[in-house]
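For reproducibility, we list the full input for the iron/sulfur cluster complex.
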Amino acid sequence: MTETSPVRATKPRQVRPATEGWSQKKDAEGRPLLQFASPKRGKPPVHLADLTPEQRVEKVKELGLPGFRAKQLEKHYFTHWTHDPAEMTDLPAEGREEFVHGMLPPLLTEVRRLETDRGDTIKFLWKLHDGALVESVLMRYPGRITLCVSSQAGCGMNCPFCATGQAGLTRNMSAAEIIEQIVRANRLIADGGLGGKKKDDQSAERVSNIVFMGMGEPLANYARVMQAVRVMTDKQHGLGMSARGITVSTVGLVPAITKLANEGIPVTFALSLHAPDDRLRDELIPVNSRWKVDEALDAARDYFDKTGRRVSIEYALIKDMNDHAWRADLLAEKLNARGRGWVHVNPIPLNPTPGSIWTASEVPVQNEFVRRLNDAGIPTTLRDTRGKEIDGACGQLVATEDDQAVAAATPLEV
Ligand code: SF4
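The corresponding predicted structure, in tokenized form, follows.
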């Protein structure tokens, strides 16, 4: 009789989230600090894009001109993407500069521009009126142009993998500071500054898609983000973009997701989940200590019920941390428990970072993760990670020391 050795089940390796090279700020109970309120700082000047159409007319009258001038200014700013009084020859020459400056005060000073992918991806570093730094990334794809915008300077959500979260929340951005990122990008495109257009590409030469995946947690700056979305989608008094092309993403601020679902604006909604189990997600996404995975998924399903818009689940695949087959199965189970056809999953492969715990899953592991979800009936596609080469992918936007030095030496636009 031969003795068979017992088959030893190999336990999957579990890497736990931890910061590298910096320490996470903690609260009195030793939990990662969450900052929801914006620190009090000097507010940016009020701008046309911060106001409703009625308020714009009022402001124009306050500046001593008839109300219909508001409409002319809207056209210059939202259709021709200009704030240069010299181009606004339909406005009276006398007092034009002061008037335009009063309605369209300068908000963003360009500090740096980095191009990659042969010029069809551009990262901008902007300085705000108070010196805070934010970034946006412009990307050309076949048939569309996407801008990844920032909604806060810094971020208060303190995710241990995120460069932006390290420094905490500097302040909320105004609606106009969000819109100005689009207007500046549109202007650059119109001037031929974005490369990569294919000969047969008939699409309009302006930003067609917005993703709120730059700096900040958009739903923590709810009112201003919503004002910005209204301006983006307003066909008469704004940029006239399609709501479907606008993606609002969140790490899971449940009450704000519910509010968003009730707005009646069918934007695309994305939940950055990154783990289907609370044990891991509590560490990976600190806001999970407030709203658990199931609560966030219930709110996401409710978003689908109210808007009819299919929800995206974002899932960064991190080697041996959240990429296990059992996690793909658990995710599929939790999504299927809430019905069929309401959701799709976008796993996002990280960049390989040798020596770091925050590194890319092996390709066969990625493929297995995707296969299991698809087999369970959940449409799943690995997402493009364009922009990573210039540190412009979601959760990676942060001004380096060098950026800060250049910013300090760049005078504000006046
Ligand atoms: S990953 Fe997103 S929510 Fe988390 S700290 Fe970074 S910017 Fe904020």
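The pocket of iron/sulfur cluster is lined by residues 155, 157-159, 162, 164-165, 215-217, 251, 395 (CB under 6 Å). Residues 137 and 392 are 6 Å apart (CA to CA). Both points were considered when choosing residues for closer inspection.
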